[in-house]
Amino acid sequence: MLKRLLTIAVTLALCLTYTACSEDSSSSKDSSSKADSSVVDSSVPDSSAADSSEPDSSVPDSSELESSVPDSSEPESSVPDSSEPDAPTEEESDITPAMWTATTKSGETIYFLGSMHALSDDCYPLPDEIWNAYNSADALAVECDIITAAQDMELQLDMVFGMMYQDGSKIQDHIEPELFENMKSLLDEKGMYLSFYEVYNPIMWSTLVEEAMMQDAGLKSELGIDGILIQKAHDENKTLIELETVESQMDILYGQPDELNVFMLEGSVMYFEDQVELLKEMYECWKKGDLEGLMAIDEAEIEDEDAEEIPADLQKMIDDYNYQLMDARNAGMVEKAIEMLEGDQSVFYVVGAAHFGGETGLLEQLEKAGYTLERVQYN
Description:
about 375 residues, alpha/beta, six-stranded mixed β-sheet, about 10% strand
């Protein structure tokens, strides 16, 4: 039978949950061994972190959290410096991600860019068309300001505690032994397993597995285009507009039934290699602005003759989750976009590329509302 892949869960996790994941994982490392967070992905623990002499602390303190946040006094700290081993070359990259323009009633331009929240070094330096849009706009509109969120210690701790069992139980008490062993083996193979993760619920484990997927796909969350642009806006005191709140995205991630969270974790582990390949395909589609290809990947399914039929109640949970994750959020993004199109300010509007496609996506809904978006052509 065909078993649906919830690849959109990866898409959202690349934007926000890595903030919590990176802060938590960094607690297992000695601060003197940390590299700058703009160069090394602190969300992937190194092998030294598993040393038994390290304290078994499941919650990072504020000093550890702060040490992985880029210093706002260092300009463009999210962009790897050219002196670093993995730094991008000075030659402009040849990526052409989907971008559109629309004109407001007052004659200003709204630039729309479909982003991907984790990229590789070969995307940088970004093409002139993207920087021209950024520099021409009065404000940058994004899903959430993840730079400010990373510096909010109370929020970070809320995110960490939201992924912990509060009754003293461990992940082994809530999932089948086979799933735990497969999950542990997978993360151990990637150098990402730490015993204190056992106090975390499936949301955290899914995040770790998704981070391993990105690692194998050659993608880095710190190179996500959203974070790069947001950091630059902070450095230059450019107006930032949040289309959503971190809390609203946390509500979606943390508000799902345990049964669904375990089901998605099981699928991530069981179909790990398949989803790595889908991430690679998604990345290739994003680089060349193939929105139709991206949407087709989002609907991808895996043929698994041994998979059991999904019970009706679980299928309803899946449908509800996908509605919250995409359709409901799309409606809010469309509403904000219309407000900007009715306004008198030039804005660079950057959200995940998947939000532009489909019946509820930005392109179709704005067209229905009477607005025309013109595709940007790259030189």
